[in-house]
Write a structure and sequence with these properties.
35% of the residues lie in helices and 25% in strands. It is of the alpha+beta class and 568 residues long. Helix 7 packs across helix 12 (540-567), helix 10 runs antiparallel to helix 11 and helix 10 packs parallel to helix 12 (540-567). The two termini are 42 Å apart.
């Protein structure tokens, strides 16, 4: 017959297997986040007549104007920043699929509405929804209960984009396909002797799009207007992939002369609009892994804004300086928008401080060099999981002196634990005497109760910075590791890494001195289970980092403890 001790271990093993089976079954049935299906181009709902016979040179009679949500377009208050905004009555926006122009590049698939020339849908062709669903990520869309579009136009005295109406452009084709090189898509509107060509310029392998308004004034009067650009979005938060973990930032961001990187949450725009005058600058809307941003040209002082619209959506963008076109003259004004992954090197090339939108938190100054080291290791080994392991080794090696001091202190504290217990029993009724005896014991044995904590506290900023690198870097999105781990940015489907992490945590506790307080000791014993369950929902790349870090710490602690025990 089995002894009670063996029966207890068998029972614990059976409960562990049962708990693991329940967790896997629950995750399969309920734990998978609902992935949004891609939105097809919006169904026709408007009454604007489709133009199928536009000639290649885009010559056209004066175009009509169509309806638009009345407070979408910045009014004169944005052309003169000192004035207060005046909200117009709300009007329903319409969209006709016959007005859409489709553009396909190797990295983008997008639709431009000829009414206003807005980008109303945009898909990232090289980024799938998940490792099992090859459908491209939809960044911009207008429909299915979600609004996220890029708008631009001309406002001011003679601008065609005014509150209540937008110009209807003509295009030479309904679809453009770019395989390599450069592509220009020109939309044309001609009215009252003034022709406006709205030109979108695409590069084959780039997420940056230049939007230029060329004004040809064939009238007898001067023309004056200002270009506005903005991102219009609702406050919906996309799934972060970390259900029980930290939620990446979703909201607006700007750069200003005072602050290189300013985050303005949508809730803040509910209370007060954002305003700033910036030379060049940029305005962005951020989410996990992806960003959309309008980037101004240096040398132009633009009026940046963020505001809540009457329909409950939000607008983030800027108004450029006025452009004057004499009768018989021509001029152009342009901006750029980037819509795609938050690739740090590319963003840093586009504008000063735009790379900060890869939001590593308050420890960004440590996270950025850690990312570049991780990127270098990946270029060397070709596997992001292996690169994480090598980076963890490098960080542990760099911090070895601190860790060594911490583990030595822990080993000494473990050595004096029997003597401490005897002192506690002997002076249970005399706190002052117990404190004096314990201090004398620490001094005699060279032990320091805080010696194990302080070095670990010094290491924490490095580990937190690395944590945010692994959480925020789009390069790790859907990156495979080995065997069953096909995506380091989502949780381990079989929870192997969290279980190994919990086991390593438990073993580490065996090598550490137990807390003197019995209640604290009981709480500490539950920590491996608590963190193991929590890490079941964390991205596999993060859990891999913590597991490797634990195993290296365990090896260090075992080696130092054994060395001290032999010396005694």
């Amino acid at each position: 017959m089995l002894s009670p001790e063996i029966r207890r271990y068998v029972l614990l093993a059976a409960l562990g297997i049962l708990g693991y089976s329940l967790l896997v079954t629950w995750d399969r049935d309920y734990g998978q986040p609902d992935s949004e299906e891609p939105t097809a181009p919006v169904d026709p709902v408007g009454e604007v007549e489709r133009v199928d016979d536009a000639p290649a040179d885009l010559a056209a009679p004066e175009a009509e104007v169509g309806p638009v949500a009345t407070d979408d377009i910045p009014g004169e208050d944005f052309a003169a920043p000192a004035a207060e905004a005046t909200a117009a009555p709300e009007e329903e926006e319409t969209l006709d699929a016959g007005r859409l122009v489709r553009v396909v590049t190797p990295v983008l698939e997008l639709w431009i509405d000829r009414l206003g020339g807005d980008v109303v849908e945009l898909r990232l062709r090289q980024y799938a929804l998940s490792s099992t669903d090859p459908t491209p990520v939809t960044l911009f869309e207008q429909g299915r209960g979600h609004v996220y579009i890029a708008q631009s136009g001309l406002i001011g005295r003679d601008g065609r984009d005014q509150s209540g109406s937008r110009p209807l452009y003509r295009a030479s084709a309904d679809e453009y396909v770019l395989e390599e090189g450069r592509l220009e898509v020109v939309l044309r509107n001609e009215q009252d002797g003034v022709r406006i060509d709205k030109r979108f310029t695409f590069e084959a392998e780039d997420y940056l799009v230049e939007v230029e308004h060329e004004i040809v004034n064939n009238s007898v009067a001067d023309f004056q207007a200002q270009m506005f650009v903005q991102l219009k979005r609702d406050a919906m938060r996309p799934d972060s992939g970390v259900p029980m973990g930290p939620r990446p930032y979703v909201g607006a961001a700007f750069t200003t002369p005072e602050d290189r990187y300013v985050k303005v949450d949508f809730d803040e725009l509910d209370e007060e609009p954002f305003r700033a005058q910036v030379d060049g600058g940029w305005a962005a809307i951020l989410q996990h892994y992806f960003a959309a941003t309008w980037v101004g040209y240096p040398g132009e002082v633009n009026g940046y804004f963020g505001r809540r619209l009457n329909d409950g959506n939000y607008a983030v963008g800027y108004v450029a300086p006025p452009v004057f076109v004499e009768a018989g003259g021509r001029a152009s004004v342009a901006s750029r928008f980037y819509a795609g992954p938050k690739i740090q090197r590319r963003l840093e090339e586009l504008a000063p401080h735009l790379g900060l939108t890869v939001d590593y938190g308050f420890l960004w100054f440590m996270s950025v060099p850690l990312f570049y080291v991780l990127d270098f290791l990946h270029s060397w080994v070709g596997n992001w999981g292996v690169a994480i392991i090598l980076l963890t080794f490098a960080v542990k090696l760099l911090l070895y002196p601190l860790a060594s001091a911490s583990y030595r202190s822990m080993a000494k504290m473990k050595k004096v634990m029997p003597q401490m217990k005897r002192l506690q029993e002997r002076h249970a009724d005399d706190r002052q005497k117990l404190s004096q005896e314990m201090m004398a014991l620490y001094k005699k044995e060279g032990a320091n109760p805080l010696g194990g904590c302080l070095p670990l506290l010094v290491q924490m900023p490095v580990f937190l910075a690395l944590y945010w690198v692994l959480l925020e870097s789009v390069e790790l999105r859907q990156a495979p590791f080995v065997l069953w781990i096909v995506d380091l940015s989502v949780k381990d489907p079989w929870f192997v890494l969290p279980i190994l992490y919990a086991a390593s945590f438990w073993v580490m506790q065996l090598l550490q001195p137990p807390p003197p307080d019995p209640m604290q000791a009981k709480i500490m014993k539950t920590m491996p289970l608590v963190f193991g369950v929590l890490f079941c929902f964390f991205p596999a790349g993060l859990v891999l980092y913590w597991l490797v870090n634990n195993l290296l710490s365990l090896a260090q602690q075992w080696y130092i403890t054994r060395k001290i025990e032999k010396a005694s």
